[in-house]
Structures are given as structure tokens and as C-alpha cells.
Here is the input.
Amino acid sequence: MSVNFSGGDLDFGQLTEVDSASDHEVVTTLRPLLPMVLAATVIWGSVLPWVTIRGFDGKAREYSLLDIKSGTSVVMTVFLFALIGAVVTLFSRRVGYTVMSLAVTALGWMAAISSAMLGLVGAFLPSMSVAGLDLTKSVVSQGSGVPITVIASLALAFMVVRQFPPMSKYSPSTSLNILPVVALVPLIVIAINMHLQWMVLASENAEMRAIVSGDSLFGSQLLVIVLWLNVGLWIAAIMIQRSVMMKIAGVASIVIALITAMYAIFLWGGGKALAWLIPGNVEQWASVDIGLPLYVVFVSSIALLILGVMSFTSGGQNKSVSLIGRRTISSQRVYTVDIVAVVIVLLMLMTTIFKRIW
Amino acid sequence: MKLSSQALRRFVQRKIDSCNGMIGILLYITIFLITMVWIGGWTGLSMIIGAFFNIPMKTASLIGATLGPLGFLITILVGFLEKRDKPRLTMERSQIGSAGMLGNQVPSWDPFS
Here is the structure.
């Protein structure tokens, strides 16, 4: 294995590896900072809440992987394997990234499986209807750590997989289509906010509070499944850079955007539409508070609708960003991937500090 | 009698404590087992599907392991794209037989291969 810098264009902050032992092919690999940060994000996501339980007193209890027995051991095991991958990166980047990705993938799938099992357990809970609202649906829901863990592990996996043939042919490592990446943002925002409280109904004496989350609405379970499928389709569109992939993902996004916008408008507007979505009489409740997540979902769904439509235009399909180029920040030329990695680290730090202060 | 009940209580408490440790170990094994079955299952499925489209085993298994059901979908899509992009050989079975070739082997002397 010999590793040398690509001499032709120094702007390309990549290493060129010639793997003489395996297949003599020349591959390009990204700088190690972003994969390492993504692996750290996955592990950070496991510390964030995976399950939220809302009592009828309006208080929410959140549980992360660390709260269960042997949860710390599980995280430490994954961390150990990710660390081994990081060490291997020093000798062979491709092998190191693969080991790191496989390690954190286990954590990503644990989050996804736990979320799926939560839905399964929720289905077995006896229905507790108050004024026509099935409150059990919003009692147990997915925490914010699940999407972060899953998306970060998928992003790292995507970066690893695209280095291998024939994936490298369909997904050039030098550039990244902007539209699928941007479309993932409102989708993830909707996915997170679907489990938060959209509306709070309180009784006259305020002893009882009914929390209506996106989960409580009719057909929302199916919508969440399609939503995650759409996340997968956009990631597939990043990996397979073909217009047909974008169009398929765009159609799914338009459908999701229209349904979520409809949910938000109907819930906000109330009246007959509300009665149709959440069968029952809402009038007997003393106060109805609309939560911030409802507005966030509405804005995100409008953004998603626009992005879905853009997937059919050539302008939307062809916009791409160079992954391995450099940007000038105060006379310093910094690699784009490193900037992305630093932004992720800053976001993690800011979220942690904000949570501590709050 | 009182002493024996206290001893029994201590004994039960010790058993519960040991069970708690045991539950932790069992839960650890169960969590990893379920995850490994999930990852292994999707790896296998992607490898099987990838084999039909002649996608390298290394790539197909890695796609399946890391991307799960999404990887399975991507394997199928890439497989179809690969199949579409490859030039079709329209050689008759009799010609292949006469040339002494096996399966999908392409003659090395063919300038269009």
C-alpha cells in the first residue's frame, strides 16, 4: 500500500491510494475529519433521548440508550470499535472508514429498531380515548436522538460505500448534488417534529391535559413510514446521480409535503376538518394551545414541496457542490469537507450547551 | 424465626442483585444479537441480489450491512443500471459452442468487446 498526494491539482485536498494488494485500482478518499466527526455524531446521538414518555400531567420524561441496563456498555463497545477504525485510518483510509462505519452502523440500526419496536409496543397499548382523542398514541414516542443517530450513520455509510465500484461510477466523490442534501433538511425536521406536541388541550380545572402530537393524527403512522422511505430515496439520489432517482424522490416529497401541510392547516384551523382528523368533540376542552412544532412542520412542508417540484427542473438537478475543493476563510484556504465537519461539531456543542443552560 | 426471615430477605435481595447483573449481561447480548441479525440479514439479501447483477461481493455486502433496506434497494437499482449500461452480446448459442467459450466469457481477440 503506497499513499501519495495527488500532485496535479493541489486544490483537491484528497489522497490518492494505490491498493497494490487487492485490485490495483486508483481510488480517491476524503479527508478523515468528516468521517470521524460523523462517527462522533452517531455516538453523541445515543446519549440524546431515544424515547419520550408523556404523562397526562403534561410532563415529558426522556430516556436515552444510557438509561437502560448495559446501555453504557453498548455505547462503549461501539466507541471502541469506532476507535479501532480511526486508528486503522492512519494506515489504510478505506479500511479504517469501513471499520468505523460498520461500528457506528450497529448503533444507527439499534436506534432504528428501537423506534420500530416502540411503534409495535404502542400498538399493543390499550386505547385511552378522552373526548375522542386516542391519548396513548402520544404517550410513548420517538426521541430526538433517533433521527440524529440514524442520519449520521447513514451519511457515513454513504461516504464509505461510494468509494467502491460500481458505486463510484454513479456517485463521483468529487462533487455532491445540492438538491437531495437540501431536501433532507425539511424532511428530518418534519420527522423530528412529528413526535413533538402540536397542540395542548387543557380541561377547565387544568387537571387533565391532552397532548396532541403528529403521531396522534389519523394515518400518521403510514406517513412516518413514507417519510423515512423518502429520506432513503433522497440518499439514494445522492448516491445514484441520475435524474430519474431525483424525480422519484421528488414525487414522494410532494406527497409528504401536501399531507403534512394539510395536517398542520386542519389542526390549526380546527372545526370540521379537525373533527375529521381527530374524531371527537374538542369543544369540551377549556383551552387549546397551538405548539411551535406545528408551525415548524408547516414551514418545512412548504419548503419540501418547493424542493420536490425543483427535482423536475434541470436547474435543480444540475446544481452541485465540490466536496474536495477549498474555500478561502480570512486568507486561509480550508477544505470544504473540513468546514462541514467543523459546522457539525459546532452544532453538537451548541445543542449540548443550550440543553445544559435550559 | 425472625432471624431466619431476615436471612431469607437478605438471600432474596442477593439473588435479585445478582439477577440485575445477569439481566444487564443478557440485555447486552440481546441488543447486539438483534442488531447483528438485522445487519447480517440485509447483508445476505444484498449479496444474493448483487450476485444476480454481477455486483462485486465486497460492495454488495458493505451496502447491505451499512445501509440495510435502503442498501437492498440501491443494490437493485445499481444492478439494473449496470445491466442497462453493459453492451449486449448477441452471439448465438451455436456460435458460442463452436468458439469453445463458456458462459459470459468475451473473446479476447474481439476488438468490439
User: Anything to note?
Assistant: Chain A touches chain B through 34 residues (CB under 8 Å). Residues 1-27 of chain A have pLDDT under 50 and may be disordered. DSSP finds 13 helices and 15 strands in chain A. The first strand of chain A starts at residue 2 and ends at 5.
